DNA sequence: AATCAAATTACAATCCCGAATAATTAGGTC
DNA sequence: GACCTAATTATTCGGGATTGTAATTTGATT
């Protein structure tokens, strides 16, 4: 069971080398939460995966919920930060930003994270899951991490498309988020809909397709 | 706690009147699963909500997972069926169907269900949640209920837009599903993005907006 | 060297959950 | 009216789940 544990089983006492177990725990927790969700994940299993004692998790992170929050914030803030940076860069150049550029800037950080390795992909799934949960706590967490970057993007889109009312853009931004989360999460649905022909398509091509779709939707004429 | 129970507490023995407890259980389970997810829901609580003994749930539905499946299939098949009907109707009239009509036919059943009452809304949320779960069982369930209607819609869209390759349409269909699930589920995100101005917008107008967005995306020129 | 604090484990406590069984009541049937 | 069967409850069972406490080992500090 716990054979998957981190390389060297340690003995009690302060170690002088080896990886930070706190990070190992976060990584394994990320995988577990992504796969089974918050309620479906057992702290025991995380401990076993990380090759540490269960109490150590409590020692570092407190309660299970605290652990989840830490996992989420760790990468969530990375993404949010990257979005800010990319938008800044876009707005800094003299000419006005195109819609497709804004969309691309918004999507890119997550896209890259997804393909950065198993943990990046896990986080993306975890986050997609969280966006489907109606519990107050989940909502607060998402808001805390993502809200202000989203608002800035809505603003930027608004300036790029002055003829479309602000609230319409807000709504369309929600559509956008839904589409890309679902797509990133990809839980087999994509393959279903294309009869398995999707495997052939390259990563960047897929991102381009997504951006094209979303940009067209965002720019659609209002009734 | 269990004060919310079904009107009349029964005694053992076969009753001659009163509502079908099996249906009551399904309804309450629907609410519970939508709110807490599969793993986060306690069978005990469902029993309490329905005002029945826990063993009765097992008597009718077997295991917790079986119960979930029943809940999901009950309305899922309704939706799937309605989609088939609407598409048939669309294809039956002589003229070729417009993209926006196809999209509308696809969305309408869920939209109506969402606004049919608390249980309809709960099912929609439940389903959005299920679409974010990577577990094999969840995937199989979704496939079983929704797959063939989706395939027919992809086909119809393909015929409406002969210049766009089939696999592109499949991909865009996935975008569409993501966007509308997220939107239907609406877990406060919409309000966040529009700074609360969304409450003012009427239901049908919102659906129109969604259709407009999606149709524009679907028809976007390919690179 | 002696002590202190950090990191880790082992183990217990408490609670709660899903499943299962056995008992009970009432309606239908012949 | 005797009997069978369907519907329902009360209660138990076995197993984990998270949380919490106490002990142990080791590096750092003075």
Automatic annotation (TrEMBL), chains A, B:
Annotated keywords: DNA-binding
Gene3D superfamilies: Tetracycline Repressor, domain 2
DNA-binding region, residue range(s): 42-61
Record-linked InterPro entries: Homeodomain-like_sf, HTH-type_TetR-like_transc_reg, HTH_TetR, PsrA_TetR_C, Tet_transcr_reg_TetR-rel_C_sf
TM stretches of this protein: none
Gene Ontology terms for molecular function: DNA-binding transcription factor activity; transcription cis-regulatory region binding
Protein name: TetR/AcrR family transcriptional regulator
Organism: Methylobacterium soli
């Amino acid at each position: 069971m716990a054979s998957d544990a981190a390389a060297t089983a340690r003995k009690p006492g302060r170690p002088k080398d080896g990886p930070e177990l706190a990070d190992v725990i976060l990584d394994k927790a990320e995988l577990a939460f992504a796969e089974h969700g918050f309620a479906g994940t057992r702290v025991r299993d995380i401990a076993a995966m990380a090759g540490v004692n269960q109490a150590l998790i409590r020692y570092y992170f407190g309660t299970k919920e605290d652990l989840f929050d830490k996992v989420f914030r760790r990468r969530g803030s990375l993404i949010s930060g990257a979005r800010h940076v990319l938008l800044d860069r876009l707005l800094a150049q003299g000419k006005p930003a195109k819609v497709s550029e804004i969309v691309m800037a918004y999507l890119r950080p997550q896209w890259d994270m997804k393909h950065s390795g198993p943990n990046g992909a896990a986080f993306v799934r975890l986050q997609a899951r969280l966006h489907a949960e109606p519990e107050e706590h989940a909502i607060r967490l998402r808001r805390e991490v993502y809200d202000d970057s989203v608002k800035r993007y809505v603003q930027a889109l608004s300036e790029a498309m002055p003829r479309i009312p602000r609230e319409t853009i807000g709504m369309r931004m929600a559509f956008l988020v839904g589409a890309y989360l679902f797509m990133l999460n990809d839980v087999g649905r994509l393959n279903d809909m294309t009869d398995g022909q999707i495997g052939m398509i390259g990563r960047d091509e897929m991102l381009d397709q997504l951006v094209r779709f979303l940009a067209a939707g965002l720019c659609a004429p209002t009734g």
